[in-house]
Amino acid sequence: MLLETEKTLGEIAAENPAAVRVFEKYQLDFCCHGNRPVEQACREKGLSAEQLLAELESTHVAEQSQDWAAASLAALAGHIVSRHHNYLREELPSLGRTIAKVIEAHGRNHSDSLLPLQHAFQGLAAELTAHMMKEEMILFPLIERLEAAHKEGVAFSGAPGGSIGNPIRMMEHEHDSAAAALAQMRQATSDYTLPPDACNTYRNLFQRLTALESDLHVHIHLENNILFPRACRLEAGPSGRS
User: Fold this and answer.
1) For the segment 25-49, what is each residue's pLDDT rounded down to a tens digit?
2) Which residues, in sequence order, are bridge partners of residue 37?
3) Quick one: pLDDT at residue 238?
4) Distance between CA 45 and CA 173 in Å, rounded?
């Protein structure tokens, strides 16, 4: 795959799943701000676009990756629920309890970082819980109905405000809010830098929060850069027009 600096981060991540690891390595936002060209994103980070592209060219996926740009929208939505939503439903409550445990043990010495971390995390967890419910109860069924209507060659109707773009824009706005919360959590902890007196639970917490961030990046990428644009294009097509 020939990569060009004019391509956006989101486009590259959609075409080459292995690129996600490289973008994470350099903390390049390919999900909520995946519409930025590679050259611009690298310039903002002080990176060489040419070196980044060379690294992307040489990166290969060790295992067979699903091509979500070619899969059905229903299959992609189902994957997001089973892989990412279910992960969040299990991990968010557990992380909340672990943060409270770490604060109980270390709050006296590190309240300046742990309390803002807890506040940002609680907001993120509450928003994500409501967000997932809206997607599963409203948006994803609409996308599946849109795809079914397209396959059957019949008109699609029933989207709020007459277009599926309306609930999609709401979900994208909530993705931006989640990204802001993740940034607040990093800021509060100086990019998850452990204090010298960190216990194993403290270390485990930061490892899991880093994993949560990485999973959310992929999760939002699959929606912002693949599922949502494909649904909007399908609705705009002749047989998908509402």
Assistant:
1) 888 988 888 888 998 999 999 999 8
2) 8
3) 60
4) 24
- Mean pLDDT score, 40-67: 77
Q: Take residue 108 and report the two structure tokens written for it.
A: 């006296």
Structure tokens that stand for 66 in this block: 């699903």
Percent of all residues in the chain with a pLDDT value above 70, rounded to a whole number: 93
Structure tokens at 88: 């969040």
pLDDT digits (tens, 9 = 90+) for 77-90: 999 999 999 999 99
3-class SS string, 26-62: CCCCCCCCCCCEHHHHHHHHCCCHHHHHHHHHHCCCC
Dihedral sign of CA atoms 60, 63, 68, 71 in order: positive
**DSSP calls for 140-196:** HHHHHHHHHHHHHT------GGGSTHHHHHHHHHHHHHHHHHHHHHHHHTTTTPPPT
Coil, strand or helix: which one is 8?
Answer: strand
- The average pLDDT across 193-208 equals 95
Separation of alpha carbons 192 and 212, rounded Å: 12
Residue in 195, 192, 193, 190 with CA at minimum distance from that of residue 209: 192
Contact call for residues 146 and 234 (beta carbons, < 8 A)? yes
Distances (CA, A) of 180 to 20, 95, 111, 174, 230: 20, 18, 21, 10, 25
| Residue 101, burial from CB neighbour count under 10 angstroms (0-12, 13-18, 19+) | middle
Q: What is the SS3 assignment for 59? A: coil
